[in-house]
Amino acid sequence: MKRFIIYCIGAAATAYLAILYENSLLVTFLVIELLLPVPLFFVAKRTAGKLQVRLLVPIPMADRGEDVSFELRLWNPTVLPVMNADIRITYWNQFRNQKTTKKLTVWADGRSQSCYQYQLASEHCGRLVICADRVRVRDYLGLLSFVVPGEQREIISVLPGLFDFPVEAEEELPYLSGESDDFDKGKGGNDPSEVFQVRPYRAGDRLQSIHWKMTARSEELMVKEFSLPVSCQTAVFLDLHGEAGELSCWETADDYLETVLSLEAGLLEAGSRNYAAWYDRSSGELFRKKMEKPEDVHELTGMLFQVMPYEETVDIEQMYRSRYPGENFAVIFRLDLQCRLWKGGTLYWERVKTGPSG
After folding, report:
1. What backbone torsions phi and psi does residue 64 show, to the nearest 5 degrees?
2. What is the DSSP code (8-state) at residue 148?
3. d(Cα 180, Cα 228) in Å, to the nearest integer?
4. CB 115 within 8 Å of CB 105
5. Which residues is 88 bridged to in the sheet?
6. Would you say residue 81 has pLDDT above 90?
């Protein structure tokens, strides 16, 4: 609009001088100034209607503190080039309300594709949303602009860092739950619902465990060794109860998520399979994730990126027992929003503001 006003003032000045001096050259300039914007107007309008803009993220994952990269690809199918296109990029972390806007100016040759690469800082963990929400193509004089239809949006997962969590390995306890579909792959047990292996007879084996078909084929006594059911004997309840101001903007998300995932990594390293459980206020339901292997920590990360603190008081343990009756745990942890870890009602660990410590 500013350029348009300046252009109009320039045309008015040319008209004034042409009338004042009765100069044919100035009259010619005035005619050009009045007619030139017309074809440029239609060219810019057609180009804006044909231009295709794509927002791409080559690697939709980054560690906290790393720069994240994204690309803008412009495809111009028309003959004439796009000399001036303004693209507004808005990005924000879903755990925070603060949005940042950048205006990028690009151009594209006729009948060609142009690619531009940019980088953003990822200061906080969580989902970083990048949105190309407004694209304007200007005419060659920069007087008028036309909006390119469509909006592009991509999400980058910014992963929290992990630290060594001071988890002590618990003494192995007997199988506690009533039923289990998981069995130990390293040793057998007494659960007849699953066969661990078929092996030669040993002194002390029960006659009921003899596999008669295999014995007939091998001409030696073969027995069925049953499986040993395994269960998650530890529960980690994630208590996301917070103050009212934390409901829409989770400022402590970095510390909390780093603590949760470091705790889970420490438990798995200590050989403690467990259930992580939390309440999701958006759906009003309890969710849980079975933690058995290191890959589960990454899956849990993506699941926790979709939750927010809640103001209402929720007894997660009671809700869990109501939904999964019959499950018993040898160890119960509860991590509150202040990064305090409780074990059986006793404060077990607390994170200080200066960094992780036990």
Report:
1. -60, 130
2. P
3. 10
4. no
5. 103, 134
6. yes
Neighbours of 160 (CB within 10 A): 23
* pTM exceeding 0.85: no
pLDDT digits (tens, 9 = 90+) for 114-151: 999 999 988 999 999 999 989 999 999 989 899 998 88
Q: What is the 3-state secondary structure (H, E, C) of 92-140?
A: EECCCCCEEEEEEEEEECCCEEEEEEEEEECCCCEEEEEEEEEEEEECC
Domains delineated in the chain: 36-159 (2.60.40.10), 183-229 (no CATH), 234-350 (3.40.50)
C-alpha 130/C-alpha 134 separation (Å) is 12
CA angle 219/223/227 to nearest 5° reads 150
pLDDT digits (tens, 9 = 90+) for 205-250: 776 677 767 777 887 887 777 665 567 889 999 999 987 665 667 8
State residue 354's pLDDT score. 47
126: left (phi over 0), alpha (psi -120 to 50) or beta: left
